[in-house]
Amino acid sequence: MAGAGRGLTRLNDEALRALLRAAYRGKLRYPLRRSDLLAQGLGELAEEADALLGLDERGLRTVLACVLAERERARSRGITPPAPSSRGGEPRP
After folding, report:
1. How many domains does the chain have?
2. Global pTM?
3. Among the four 19, 26, 62, 71, which has the fewest Cβ within 10 Å?
């Protein structure tokens, strides 16, 4: 549980969007498991997405949409969301 306690702050937007696309395309199994993320080539998420593990499809889509919308709103107000680690991709400017 490398990501315990950090929520999704260490994951960049592109990684979260990739997971959301996989969910909408029906490429994931639920409840979401780390092994399913690895099987879909989403290894960087598997290490940092403890907050998403165990969610059903509706829950996963809801959480991801909310996190991405919250980050976009923060950026539109000139607030820089926390930068992710190198595991989740490059930090946002």
Report:
1. 1
2. 0.77
3. 26
